[in-house]
Amino acid sequence: MREKPAPEKVEQLYEKLQEDAAAAGYNLNPDEAFTRDLVEALLINARRYGYQACPCRLASGSRDKDLDIICPCDYRDQDLAEFGTCYCALYVSDEIARGEREASPIPERRPAERKMPPEGGRGREGEGEESPDGATGRLSDSAKDLPYPVWRCPVCGYLCAREHPPEKCPICKADKDRFQRFL
Questions:
Q1: Domain ranges of the chain
Q2: What pLDDT score does 16 carry?
Q3: DSSP 8-state code for residue 127
Q4: Using CA atoms, how far apart are residues 116 and 147, in angstroms rounded to an integer?
Q5: Cα dihedral 41/98/94/26 (nearest 10)
Q6: Which residues of the chain have pLDDT under 50?
Q7: Strand, helix or coil at 93?
Q8: What is the predicted pLDDT for the residue at 158?
Q9: Is the separation of the CB atoms in 91 and 27 below 8 Å?
């Protein structure tokens, strides 16, 4: 049996998540015992896989395959908007945080057969990428004329135009490798 993370590590990550959530306009679940259990599970997954995979989903152990379920997952904002919580209920809406609404189970958005990124990364070559209107194919001529590529954070939608994506998303703190080429 694996050891549980030290209580001070759980507390440290809990406080960091609270600060980051508040700074970005999000709420952690107000049920502290439940939330601390989720934080503990994130630490266990970080030790097991090397990244904080969602504690309520089965991770593959391959960061590249699991980029969409590294907390905060790519599905968080859509789940919050539609159901008031993310899949594991770590993040909740204002209504739920204030106690005006109860959290309830939500369906899994992650596709059963997730499309794997092409060898060498997530759509950074300019061909076969999904364009902002959802179509696939080559980038438009106007997009090719931009002085810098545009990168999108799949977790929060943050966009930036620069040579390379930021090391961390300034909004949701997602890591650099989660960014996708947008234009």
A1: 7-97, 129-181
A2: 96
A3: S
A4: 29
A5: -40
A6: 115-138
A7: coil
A8: 85
A9: yes
Per-residue model confidence (pLDDT) at position 121: 42
**Residue 143: Cβ-neighbour burial (10 angstroms; 0-12, 13-18, 19+):** middle
In the block, tokens 């694996």 appear at 2
Residues 7-27 pLDDT 10s? 999 999 999 999 999 998 899
Q: Give the C-alpha separation, 129 to 122, whole Å.
A: 9
Q: Which two tokens mark 160?
A: 């930036």
Cα-based torsion angle of the residue sequence 15, 21, 26, 32 in order, rounded to the nearest 10 degrees: -10
pLDDT digits (tens, 9 = 90+) for 75-106: 999 999 999 999 999 999 999 999 999 888 88
| Buried/exposed 32-42: b ≥16 CB within 10 Å, e otherwise | eeebbebbbbb
CATH code assigned to 129-181: 2.20.28.10
Decide if domain 7-97 falls under CATH 3.90.460.10.
yes
